[in-house]
Here is the input.
Amino acid sequence: MTNKNISVDTKLIHAGEPNPRIKGAVSMPIFQSSNFEYGGETSYDSIRYIRLNNTPNHIALHQKLAEVAGADAALVTSSGMSAITTALLAYLKSGDHIMAHHTLYGGTADYIVHDLPKYGIDFDFFDAMNPANWESKLKPNTKVIYVETITNPLMDVPKLDAVVQFAKKHNLVSLIDNTFASPLLYSPIKHGFDISLHSATKYLNGHSDIVAGVVIGSQEHITQVNSKLIHLGGSLDPNACFLLHRGIKTLSLRMERQCENAMKIARFLEDHPKILRVNYPGLESNRSHENAKKYLCGFGAMVSFELDGDVASADAFINRLEYAINAASLGGVETLITRPVQTSHSLMSTSERKKAGISDTLIRYSVGIESADDLIGDLKQALE
Here is the structure.
């Protein structure tokens, strides 16, 4: 694309597309070939091979993702966790230290607590909502600071500008998981973060039919992460690249409806007498509301809440729902619901979840594109 000043809605459709189109194909074809004929490449990384993430499907997708995110480069991986772990290992080695927000996706938290120490990497969790305490967690060997734009599953929005400033002041590599926000609500690279991470399984693809990850950043950072990814082998196959390429084109439409639905549902839940607490940054009563207004272009489509009852009550409520599917993931066009203690945060111990503020009765609700009235009616009948 020659015009870089067009809207993100147009970039989602046209950025990264082949020019001229391959044999005139309007849709990007699938290049289902593991390797390609040698074309005089002079470096290992430039040899055309699926594991090297440089097939035509990879290249088109990388360009689209980078332009949508306002970054120099992007890299797709085999899963969100592949993106996260590869990026961390690209910047951490034995003897290093990482600072990470105390409430994260369960797989990330478990990896930091139980796997990084095996590599000789130390960690400390910190409250990304409270900059006053960050200096106390900093060590001479701290190399990386890690946060989530909207935290999973409590929907907190950290002091994002303060994280960037802290990282630059102390020469840290700043990593942010932008899955819940997507580039539509927040563009981390434009705001000074070094690396933006996504589980593309969720909103970027949006149809619950692939597992994929994304790393976004400067060309220098992406080259470093890709070098690690090549050795770890977490590449994305061409068919999944095609599905992600197709799915991301409707991201703007999906997110607009999902965010609108989520606000209506959060307000309904907040007013219901059987709901003790609702976590949604769009609510004026939410502790992250001011941060969300300051940093984000919307409040997201994820809601979590607690009923006035025990675990059995929470499960009974979930089982009575007609439209929300009880499943582990999120970000699809269909509404999904889970208790994180059973799925996304089940790897964490009871004490670890307690420290992170995640109760056994917490319910996470991923709002789809169905009619908000129908979803609210379904919630109402299940509560009553």
